[in-house]
C-alpha cells in the first residue's frame, strides 16, 4: 500500500475525542430540548414570551459587548434596560410575521423561525464595572449590538492621618 494506505484511512476516520463527543451530544440535546420547549409554549401559551434570542457576550479592554441575534425584529419593537445594580441586562421585544399571511397553508414541513414576544435577561459578568451613563445599542444586519463601556479605573485615594 502506498504511503500509509489502510492505516492512514483508519486514522483519519477515527472519531473525535471523548470530550468532543460529549460536547456535541450535550449541544444537540440542548438544541432539541430548547426546540421542544419553544414548540410547547408556542402551542399552549396565551401570553408571555415564546422564544429567546441567542446571545454572544465578549469583553474588550474598555467595554463589554452583547450581541443579540434578532433577525426580523424591528428596532421600534425593542426595549433594552440595565438593572439598577448594573448586574442584569434585559432585552424585550416582539418579532411579528408582518405581511406574511398563513392563509392557504396546508401543512408545515419545517417550522424553525419563532414569532411573538420574547424576553432575555442576561447576567453580566462579576467584576466588570459598567458605566451606565454611556450605554449604546445599534441594530446591524439582524443583530442588536449593545455596548456597555467599562467605568474608568478608579484610583485609590489616600487618607492622610493627622497627629
Low-confidence stretches: 42-47
Please compute the radius of gyration using only Cα atoms: 24 Å
CA-CA gap between termini:
91 Å
> What characterizes the major β-sheet?
4 strands, antiparallel
**Which word captures the global form?**
flat
Supply the CATH class of the largest domain. Mainly Beta
- How much strand content do the residues show? 25-35%
Q: How many domain units?
A: 2
Number of helices: 2
**How do the strands line up in the largest sheet?**
1-2-7-6
Let me know the average pLDDT: 81
Q: Which structural category fits the helices and strands?
A: alpha+beta
Q: What's the CATH topology label of the largest domain?
A: Immunoglobulin-like
DSSP E strands, number: 7
Q: Which CATH architecture of the largest domain is right?
A: Sandwich
Task: Report the helical percentage.
Answer: 10-25%
Amino acid at each position: 500500500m502506498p504511503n500509509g494506505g489502510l492505516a492512514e484511512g483508519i486514522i483519519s476516520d477515527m472519531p473525535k475525542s471523548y470530550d468532543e463527543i460529549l460536547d456535541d451530544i450535550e449541544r444537540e440535546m440542548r438544541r432539541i430540548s430548547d426546540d421542544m420547549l419553544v414548540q410547547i409554549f408556542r402551542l399552549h401559551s396565551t401570553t408571555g414570551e415564546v422564544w429567546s434570542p441567542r446571545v454572544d457576550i465578549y469583553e474588550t479592554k474598555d467595554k463589554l459587548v452583547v450581541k443579540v441575534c434578532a433577525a426580523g425584529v424591528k428596532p421600534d419593537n425593542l426595549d433594552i434596560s440595565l438593572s439598577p445594580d448594573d448586574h442584569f441586562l434585559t432585552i424585550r421585544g416582539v418579532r411579528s410575521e408582518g405581511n406574511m399571511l398563513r392563509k392557504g397553508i396546508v401543512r408545515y414541513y419545517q417550522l424553525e423561525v419563532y414569532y411573538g414576544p420574547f424576553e432575555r435577561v442576561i447576567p453580566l459578568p462579576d467584576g466588570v464595572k459598567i458605566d451606565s451613563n454611556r450605554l449604546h445599542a445599534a441594530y446591524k444586519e439582524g443583530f442588536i449590538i449593545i455596548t456597555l463601556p467599562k467605568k474608568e479605573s478608579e484610583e485609590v485615594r489616600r487618607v492622610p492621618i493627622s497627629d
